[in-house]
Design goal:
This protein is 3% helix and 37% strand. By secondary structure, the protein is mainly β.
Length: 396
């Protein structure tokens, strides 16, 4: 999924995987200097009868059924009714026989078509081995709303991954009806191929495609206002670029604004708001600091992060949601996010006019915070990659 040598170490301890140390953070010591969490907030386990295998995504179908879908990294999507006493989940989709998983690879993203209630279409983002080459795959499956047919796969888009880490993986439908796809820089450490700044490939980008049309021999269309459409030196799918390893992108259900959480290299974790044609700076910058070169880098034309934080706070950002639920009124409109390694959970308030952000620590999750989830009502959940459990953000 994300990340850094400390996370790889955790996965190794858990018997999941040991990966290359090339994408390291500078230390394997967890942060210890963060102030104490706010005493009024807590995360509580919910759906106590359910445990998932390395969960990395949680979402809903917005179809009025009040169901929750959980993505297991090895290639299975589970579904269950959003009820406190639910005691079992069902398999919605199983493509584990074609998914290459482990470390940062696997089934990483799930999105339901805006007209899912009518057409039953579901989309996934996963990694596979094809002719001994690791690839990212974005596919469409057909469902009867209860289960998806694994044999109905229509592959929309594939692209090679030069290394096993930094696969991004999140997908979502924007308010414009187009599918947005987050891709990592191809892996290793420091983006050695300079993929993120190279608009001729799809790595280190946010892509935007139209799944309702097909053109030019593609299994999808290119939206007419994609910023690089028609340019011979750029892939037309690209909507924004200069990202390292966006681990979760989410859309504010009220404004449609897309938030990006981009995992850093050695020093900074960053939060961005998606802008059409935006260049977010990697590998020239890491967060608000220079990376390559280490000093006096040229930031001209870059979109500055809304917020970034250093290694005393955490070492691998996990993107969340702008809270639009009804139960936690004091954080409505705030971006709730966390950190995989430290378990810290914050609320970020952003003033678009002044472009100023204020950040406050709410609480911590004990374990490994792989993802946030949002149910149909807009309440926020957290996935524990280590224990396989789901937690709910609540006031004490």
């Amino acid at each position: 999924m994300k990340i850094n040598s400390f996370v790889f170490y955790l996965w190794g301890v858990l018997g999941i995987v040991t990966l290359l140390s090339a994408c390291t953070k500078s230390s394997e010591t967890p942060p210890t200097t963060n102030p104490a969490p706010n005493a009024t907030w807590q995360v509580n386990p919910v759906f106590s009868s359910l445990t998932f295998n390395s969960p990395v995504e949680m979402t809903h179908a917005a179809d009025g059924t009040n169901r929750i879908f959980v993505v297991e990294q090895h290639g299975v999507v589970r579904v269950f009714q959003n009820e406190a006493n639910v005691n079992q989940s069902q398999t919605f989709l199983d493509i584990s026989n074609r998914v290459s998983s482990g470390g940062e690879t696997g089934l990483l993203g799930l999105a339901f078509h805006p007209d899912f209630k009518t057409n039953g279409q579901v989309f996934v983002n996963y990694t596979r081995r094809f002719n001994n080459q690791l690839q990212s795959v974005v596919s469409r499956f057909q469902s009867n709303k209860t289960t998806a047919d694994a044999n109905s796969e229509e592959i929309l888009l594939t692209f090679d991954q030069p290394y096993a880490n930094h696969n991004g993986g999140a997908i979502l439908f924007g308010k414009d009806g187009f599918l947005y796809i987050a891709t990592g820089d191809g892996g290793s450490g420091g983006d050695p191929q300079n993929n993120s700044q190279n608009r001729a490939n799809l790595l280190g980008k946010i892509l935007r495609i139209d799944v309702n049309t097909k053109e030019s021999g593609l299994n999808y269309g290119i939206p007419a206002d994609n910023p690089f459409k028609g340019m011979t030196s750029a892939r037309p799918e690209i909507y924004a670029y200069g990202l390292r390893n966006p681990w979760k992108i989410t859309s504010d259900r009220s404004t449609g604004r897309v938030w990006i959480a981009d995992v850093g290299q050695n020093a900074r974790e960053e939060i961005d708001i998606l802008e059409k044609g935006g260049n977010y700076g990697w590998r020239v910058t890491e967060g608000k600091e220079c990376y390559s070169p280490a000093n006096n880098c040229n930031r001209t034309g870059f979109v500055e992060p809304v917020f970034d934080y250093g290694t005393s706070e955490g070492r691998s950002i996990t993107g969340g949601y702008v809270y639009r639920g009804a139960k936690l009124t004091s954080i409505v409109g705030q971006y709730i996010y966390g950190d995989y390694v430290s378990g810290n959970i914050w609320a970020l308030t952003y003033d678009e006019n002044s472009r100023q952000a204020t950040n406050k620590l709410l609480t911590r999750l004990v374990g490994s915070l792989s993802s946030f989830g949002e149910d149909e009502a807009g309440e926020l959940y957290l996935l524990n990659h280590q224990t396989g459990k789901i937690h709910l953000l609540e006031l004490k």
